[in-house]
Structures are given as structure tokens and as C-alpha cells.
Amino acid sequence: MNIEEFRNYCLSLPQVEEKRPFDEFTLCYYIAGKIFALADLENCTYSNLKCNPDRAVELREQYNAITPGWHMNKKHWNSVAFHSDVNDTLYKELIRHSYNCVILSLPKKSQHLYELL
After folding, report:
1. What residues are paired with 17 via a beta bridge?
2. pLDDT, tens digit, for every residue of 47-85?
3. Rounded Cα gap, residues 22 and 83, in angstroms
4. FRET label pair with 51: which of 25, 28, 34, 58, CA 20 to 30 Å apart?
5. What's this model's pTM, rounded to 2 decimal places?
């Protein structure tokens, strides 16, 4: 996967917004007003994705391209390299997992407003 495919896939998910709140180079993808994915347009080498803590550790052990989230909470975020040992199918699944993690972190009364993927 590359940055363009990443961007297109994130934007294809229901109710996703793209913003650049930090600077002109950092793309952030939001669901329910919360970030679930980030990518840097300047170096285009990886994205940061939210992840269940137990699964995050398993993925890091399995794939060289998955490391603790750079500049993020290492328990809940992974950095996933583009053009790596993570194939496009898995990359998309990790994006959906990140999206779902954010929805499941919402108050129960708000979760029904969003679609789990």
C-alpha cells in the first residue's frame, strides 16, 4: 500500500473526515471527532493506526513493518510501514480495526450512531 491508496481507503469508510490539525503535512482521519489514522505527506513512509493493546503486541512480533506508534501512545498505536511485508489486505483490515477501536471507545449511547466494519 502507498500513501494515495491509504488516503483513498480511509476516505471510503463511512462518516470519515480528513483534516490537517497539526501542520500542512500530517493527514489525520477522524470518526466521531476522534483520530483513528494519521500519515505524513512529507516522508510517506508509514501510517499510525490505533490498535487493541494485545493485538498491537502480536502484530509487532509478526511483522517487521509494524512498530510502536511513533509520537503516539505506544500501548494503543502502531506505526505501519508502506511498501512493506504488510500486504494490502492486512493493511486495510488494520485501518478498519483502528476505525472500530475508536467507535468502541465512545460512550455506549453514541456508538449506535456509527457503523462497525
Report:
1. 30
2. 999 999 999 999 999 999 999 998 899 999 999 999 999
3. 25
4. 25
5. 0.95
